[in-house]
Amino acid sequence: MLTVDEQFNIIKRGTVEIVPEEGLKAKLKDAQEKGKKLKIKLGLDPTAPYIHIGHGVVLRKMRQFQDFGHEVIIIIGDFTASIGDPSGKTITRPQLTAEEIAENAKTYYDQYCLILDPSKTRVVFNSEWLGKLSFADVIRIVSKVTVARILERDDFETRLAEGRPISMHELMYPVCQAYDSVVLESDVEVGGTDQKFNILMGRDLQTQFGLEEQIGLFMPILPGLDGVQKMSKSLGNYVGITEEPKDMFGKLMSIPDEIMPSYFELCTDVPLDEIEEIKKKLSDGSMHPMEAKKRLAREIVTIYHSADAAKEAQAEFERVFSQHEVPADMPEVGVADIMEDGKVWIVKLLAAANMAPSNSEARRLVMQGGVTIDGEKISDPKANIEVKDGQVLRAGKLKFARIKL
What's the pTM value of the predicted model, to 2 decimals? Predict the structure, then answer.
């Protein structure tokens, strides 16, 4: 069994802040001495059920607590999702319907079980208690929170200053999340830095209800593949944890060199002293960034797939990108339905191959010079191409399809 200090040092890795650090040490010590499990809380609003390695940063932290014998409680915020978390939002978020929430919620399990131990994970829905509160109950709860405290939130403050509206239901969101902590009597709540206000509100409300305060553990927001904005499916700068190994590997090889250290620390289990050595070698030029990036991609693909899958993905990457070959396997795109007079409009061809979500995106790809057929660049988005059976369509660095007449 690891000592409390050893557990704490592992848990602290990659965190931005632990509020308070000594409180977490005390809880870990008390749990070890009494042989009890801490309740580690994470709330997931089922608004975008596709989990990427940015979500994995928080989930992997939860797994560390599980490995130390503690209980992870995943709260599917089916009730709070009907409000919409206003964190970091400059406008009111649209409210989801019950059907949308249910559809999104059921997709989580298979994904988070790639990281968490299902036998040590309890899943609850906060409609179980929030949906049963009477209006008198709600008044009793909100009477313990001041308006001034709610308006301390940066996003609310900004919207007020700029004259943008804030709806009453948005003011209730942090109170609802805080009440989850009261009901579950959570010991630790883990979240990204964007959740700091909500999690600290949980500490405040637990105190008002005579409970021991939870510890707030805050993880950084992982930058996306562009190295600028946070990882997000809607921005297209993400790596999904269920993606094919070769796709994960290829995407990770595209990240800017300067964010590699963050990815190593937050997304892998490589020891910190080894990461420091990699940073030193990159700085003095004794290691090429390409080699460090391959190591990073191997580590991440191994976590979500296997070491063999990572090795195969690297071999495929090197074959395609280093030796300028095409993938051994690629999807086919049928063109019979979109041909006119033996030719195909390049924009329609990209759409049929699922290489662009819209005609405008397809045009952009062509104009940026990212589209080729059998290695020949197509630069005119109005081009009608005479295609042949078996030709290879390529969009960007990662997307290939074989044309089928």
Answer: 0.78
